[in-house]
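Appendix B. One record, verbatim.
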Amino acid sequence: MGIPQKIKARVTSGSFKSTLWLLSERMLKMGLGFVIFALIARHLGPQDFGLLNYSIAFVALVASFTPLGLSGLVVRELVKYPEKKDRLLGSTLLLRFLTGIIAFCGVFLFINTNEDSHMANIILFIVSFKLLLDCFETFDLWFQSIVKSKYTAIAKIISLIAVSLVNIFLIYIDVGVVYFALVTTVEFGLIYVLMFFIYAIKFGSPLKWEFDFTLSKQLLVQSWPLIFSGVAAVIYLKSDQIMLRWLDSEAAVGIYSSAVRLSEVWFFLPTAIVTSLFPAIIKAKQENPSMYNDMLQKIYYLLFYLSVALALIVMLIGTPLINIAYGAQYADGAIILKVHIWTAVFVFMRALLSKWLINENLLLFSFVSHGLGALSNIVLNLILIPIYGGIGAAIGTLLSFSVSTVLFTFFSKKTRVAGYMMVKTIFDPILRLVDFYKKGRKSS
C-alpha cells in the first residue's frame, strides 16, 4: 500500500522544494561552515576553542526553555487555522521575547556569582546576547507552515557567507577568542534581520501581529510538557561539553567539540526532511488514517539507512579527516568521532518521533523521553568522563540517545507503536539478509 496520490502531490511539490532549499543551506553550512570552523579551531588552539564552545553550549542550555515548546505546536496550528496567523505569531513572538529576557538575566547573574576567569565570563556574556534574539525565530514558524522554508534557507545562506568572510579576516589579522564570540552572536542577529525583511516584503508588515492572552494561555497549557522536554533535550545534547570542562579541562572540550562537529554537521538531514514533510504528515492523518502508519514506516526506513550509510563512511575516513581538518593537536578526537557518529542512527529517527508525538497529542511523552535521555546522559557522564575523558562523553551520549529515542517508547501502550516501527527499522537489514539466505537455500 502506498501513500495517497493527493498527499504525494503535496510532498513532491512544496515539501520537496522546501527540502531542497533546506538541504542546500545545510550543505553550504557543512562545506563552507565547516572549513571556517576548522580554521578557527586551528587558530585558537584546543584551550581557547574549548572555552568558546563551552560558552556556546552553556548558553544553549539556558536557551532551551525560551522556545516554550511552541515551535511544533504553532506550526500545527498555522497549518490548521491560517486565519489565526497574526495572533499566533504575535503571541509567540512576545512570549519568547519575555523568556529571552529572563534567560539573559539568569546568565548575567551566573557570571556575577561564579568563580570562572575574567576571560571566560566575558565570552559567556557576549554569547548570551543570542538569548535576546531568539524570539525572532518566530518568522521561521510561518515559513514552515506554508512549506516555504526556502526563505529561512536564503537568510541563513547570506548570513553564513557574510560571517565566513568576517571570520577569515579575523584569522588573518590574528585576533583572540573574544572577537569570534562576537561574530557568533552577530550571525544570529543577521539571520533574523533578513527573515524580518523577507516576511515584510512577501507577507506584509509584522506590525500587524497581535498578542492574544487567551490564545497564549491555550498554547502554553498544551506546550508545558514540551517546555521541559526541550530543556531535557538540550541537557543531553550539550551537557557533555559542559561536564567535560568541569570534570576535565577546556582543552578536552576543544578536542571533543572538534570531533562532535564532524558528527553533528550531518544531523541537519533528518531535521530538513521531517520539517518539510510535517505538513504532509498532518494531512495524512486527517485525510487517510489507513495510510498514515505506512507513510511513517517508510520515512523511518529512509532516515535509518541514511544514518547507517553516514556512520560507515565516517568510520572509514574519521582519522585522516580529523588530522586534515584540525591538525595533530586534535588527533585524539578521531576515536571520539568514530563513537559519536553512531548517535546519528537515533538522532535521525528521533526527528520523526518528535513530530509524531506532536501530531498524536502525546506531548507529555516528549518530556518523558528527553527527561530519561538527560538523566541517563548526566549519570553516564559522571561515571565515564573521569575515566575515559572525551571518549566517555561520546559513549554516554550514544547510550542516552538510545534510551530517549527507542527504549522509552515501550513504557506505555500509547507510544509502543512508534517503538515497534523503530525496532522493525533497526532490524530490517538483518531480516533482509535472513530472507535473502532463505531464498538462496530454496533456489539451490
